[in-house]
Amino acid sequence: MDYPHIPLDHHCSVLRFETPGIWALEKATGVLTHPNKESKKSTKQRTLLNADYMHEDECYHWTNSKGEIQRLFLIHRLDSPTSGIILAASSQELAEAIKSSFSRKEVKKTYYAIIKPNAQIKEGVWKDYLKEKREGGKIRVYRGKGQVALTKVSIERKKCGLYGLVMLRLEPLTGRTHQLRVQCALRGLPIVGDKNYGDFTFNRKIARASKVDRLTLHATEISLKFRFKNEDIDFFEDSALPRSMGKLMAYR
Questions:
Q1: What fold, for 1-103?
Q2: Is 128 a catalytic residue?
Q3: Could you say which DSSP state residue 241 is in?
Q4: pTM for this prediction
Q5: Active-site residue identified among 9, 52, 79, 238
Q6: What is the pLDDT of residue 42?
Q7: What is the pLDDT of residue 163?
Q8: Residues of the chain with pLDDT under 70
Q9: Which overall architecture, per CATH, does domain 105-252 show?
């Protein structure tokens, strides 16, 4: 694949680069989409790119081997423990065109999640009202009088393996903080490896047995259509299920 060099974290990769400058990047679990605004510069953070980040412009910037300033603009984000596809753009103009597609809800995103089924799984559209609170410097999300969260849910793989785990296909119709993790937990279907909203005792048990110790939530597909400089662009990319998640489903 021929594309310009960007200083990606060595555990992340380029899935696709397409003219006029659309990037589909695969973020590894444990990597921040961008540095936390509140953190001190002296604190080492593992981020999507090994470069400086401007929060006001939502872009990374660095100097290439020719002494030229390069920029990469983020389109959206994934929580640090979530792996999978992130979109970025080589110019601010292109980034704004793609973001407008997000704001018009013309983007389709799909995630896979491995859950511990403590309750009956109801497929269809889940609807909750969620509110955020900052506790001890971290954001926590609860059911309450907040913004509506909508997610289309279906079973991707039925109970299997030693622990009877289930893989869900989650298609968020809104983009709230921690939306998928919280909606699963609220229904007694905690995502395996979730250290904020999950079943902590079970997480420790399965991590010891399987050696898989991560949030088992993966952004697997994204598709969108938008118009840029009088051209209609139809973009799609997917990301394979991580081996660790496949291993967990097959564990016996």
A1: Alpha-Beta Plaits (3.30.70)
A2: no
A3: P
A4: 0.93
A5: 79
A6: 46
A7: 86
A8: 1, 38-43
A9: 2-Layer Sandwich (3.30)
